[in-house]
What we know:
Blueprint: E1 6-8, E2 11-13, E3 15-29, E4 36-52, E5 57-64, E6 71-81, E7 84-91, H1 113-122, E8 127-136, E9 140-147, E10 162-171, E11 175-189, E12 192-207, E13 212-220, E14 241-249, E15 251-253, E16 256-268, E17 273-285, E18 289-300, E19 303-319
Antiparallel strand pairs: 1-2, 3-4, 3-19, 4-5, 5-6, 6-7, 7-8, 8-9, 9-10, 10-11, 11-12, 12-13, 13-14, 14-16, 15-16, 16-17, 17-18, 18-19
Amino acid sequence: MFLCSSSFSGVKLPEVKVVVQPRFDLSVRSPALDSSVQEWSIRRAQVELAYSDESKLGFGVSADVSKDKILQNAFIRYKPFDFLSIRAGRARPSFGYDMQKAPEKLWLVDNSRTSTFIKSAVGTDRNVGLEISGSLPAKTFYKLGCYDSPNYKNGPFEFVELFAAEAGWKQFDFFQLTAAFRTESFRQHPLLQYRTSFFDVALVSELFQKRWYTEVEFFYGDASLKDYLVDWDDEDEFVTASLRVLSTYRFDFKGNALWPVIAVEHFDNGFTGTQDYTGGIRWGRGEAFFIDLNGKFTVREDSVSGRKITVQGTYIFKRK
């Protein structure tokens, strides 16, 4: 999460990371192809602090003033062994490879359609809870967590109404396979209760000295969930299953880097299938400054239903 450390007069200070991402969006949606929506926004204006010492105690805090909920992460961590790390507080549940990426690891300006759906359906991408994780033999790892659920109102056991688990295997430093499971209770009314389950599998490879990056992610959801989402009114955006393939290759020249990126995502809402085709290019200068240009076509029922062009800048400051 954090890649830098600092000290002052022998006292170790928290690691600091600042991410600012201004962006411009131009969207055109069928059938009115002559109508368009232009929007300037700040995708992120985030400050992150992290600390760990030799006693294996640490904490993480982050805030994003561009979001409605400014406080993002606020947790403490204790890691007595490599096979056991305990995290308590507000953080992302360990589910969804794309959902857990740091901003600079998002090769496109937006998360996948599936990640956006999950966040919209459950109301948040961060929850208060307790998670244990660690490394196991044969280069495997695990994460297990229970969290509160904002969707389980007036219930006696709110804190344990969201459970997430992830297992992974990393081999040869260029191949990783993860499988994740998430189950959550929805209780918007005392007489209306439902438990849903999500499944996610991701395969990631980095070849040719980590220049060629490829990511394949499969998601399987619950078609019956939409009957229990009281405020959900856009059936086309509901996702019951999806498959996303993303690939990029890094070219270096005179201190600059260029990444052409392409991604295809197919998702199904239980009735119709939709495809997002996204192409883009990222230019970077060092590890602090990036500019992204993305174009996306959305095809639903064999016809183009939307077009979107996005330009986004990223500035990252890290205190070492």
